[in-house]
Amino acid sequence: MSARGRMETYEVRVLHEGYSRLVDDVFEANCTCTLITGPYNIIVDTMTPWDGNYILKRLKEFDLTPGDIQFVISTHGHSDHVGNNNLFLSARHIVGRCISYRTTYFDEPFSRGDEYVIDPESLRVISTPGHTLACVTVLVKTDEGLVAIAGDLFEKLEDVYNEYVWLGAGSENPDLQRHNRAKIIQLADYIIPGHGPRFKVTKEMKEKFKP
Ligand SMILES: [Zn+2]
C-alpha cells in the first residue's frame, strides 16, 4: 500500500530526454530512456553504448541498481535504443517483439503481434509497427492517466503537426505507422516519444487523429 493508502501504482520517469537534430548537415540523435517503477521496475530504451555510466548514475538517484530491474524493453532494435541492455543481467529482455532471458527465447503470442501483459492491472506492451516492422509501445497506467512510451512511432511532438518529421526519421511502413500513431493518440493521455520531451495528448489531437 502506498502512503496514500491504496494499491501501489506505477510511476514513469524520463531518465534521458531524447533528441534528434542536424548539426552542420550531420544527423545527431539519442533516444529517450525511461524508468518505470512499481511492482515491477522496468527500463525502456537504453541509449547508445557510450551512455552506460549515465544510466547507472540516473538509476542511483532513485536508489536502484541494474539488479533491481526486472524487464528491459527496447521499443525496437536500432543502436541508440539497445546500447546498454547488457547492464541488466537479472532482467527479462524484450527487444521489439522478441523476448529472451539469457539463452532462452520465449515463443509468446507477442512475437506474432499479440500484446504482452506484464501486469494485468496496469502494464502491457503492444505491437505498433511502422518505424520498424517489430516496433512496440509500452502502455502504463499511472495516477496521471495512461502513458504510452512509444519509441520512434513518434519522433517528437512536432511530428504530430508535421508528418515529414517522423517520415524523415525513417519508416519501414508509413501506412502502418500512420495507423498506429492514430491508435496511440486515441488511447493515451501522455506520449513519451523516441526523440523528444514527453507531451500531453490534447482533445484537439484526438480529434485530428480520429479514424
Ligand atoms: Zn530512435
Automatic annotation (TrEMBL):
GO biological process per UniProt: RNA 3'-end processing
Cellular component, GO, one term: cytosol
Catalytic activities: a ribonucleotidyl-ribonucleotide-RNA + H2O = a 3'-end ribonucleotide-RNA + a 5'-end 5'-phospho-ribonucleoside-RNA + H(+)
InterPro entries: MBLAC1 (IPR039344), Metallo-B-lactamas (IPR001279), RibonucZ/Hydroxyglut_hydro (IPR036866)
Location of this chain's protein in the cell: Cytoplasm, Cytosol
Summary of subunit composition and partner proteins: Homodimer.
Biological function: Endoribonuclease that catalyzes the hydrolysis of histone-coding pre-mRNA 3'-end. Involved in histone pre-mRNA processing during the S-phase of the cell cycle, which is required for entering/progressing through S-phase. Cleaves histone pre-mRNA at a major and a minor cleavage site after the 5'-ACCCA-3' and the 5'-ACCCACA-3' sequence, respectively, and located downstream of the stem-loop. May require the presence of the HDE element located at the histone pre-RNA 3'-end to avoid non-specific cleavage.
Protein name: Metallo-beta-lactamase domain-containing protein 1
